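Dear colleagues,

As part of the handover before I leave the project, I'm documenting each prediction I ran so the next person doesn't have to rerun anything. This entry is a single chain, and its sequence is reproduced below.
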Amino acid sequence: MFRTCLIISQVLLAVIYTSAGVSKFLHGFPVIIGPVWLIEELSKYGLGLFGYLIAVAQLVSGLVLFFPIYRLIGALMLLPMQLCITVVTISLGWSGTPYINLVLLGMVLALIYDEREKLAKLVGSQAGFRQHKVAYVMSFIGFWSAAALMKYGALLMNGA
């Protein structure tokens, strides 16, 4: 039963996000969720390119989810997007929509949970870190130092 629910969730998310992505390019395309006017609305604020990025991300992640072998990749691609959509709808006080988005977020999380063994293999390996620990630590310190210098360097130069 759980497997069947996961397959239904996977296909439903694939259809929802593929149609949401395509509909932002082709307004006549049938869509289940998502504003088809997003690109036009964001363009008013100089963010049209961001709207296209969202459309492409929805399209690609939806297409990836159609293939069972890539379910983990598709779910990981959808997680930040679905989380942001959920937070935005809650923040804007939309009635009803946050509940639908929470269900969709739960579906994404269920797909990731089912693939947890694959995910553990991807992130669980410490061998690469142990082998190159000095490079990781020095890169971390170096990049944070450069960021701090860019942010506060002018203050140090003017104050000295």
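The two ends are 69 Å apart (CA to CA). The mean pLDDT is 88.

All the best with the project,
I.
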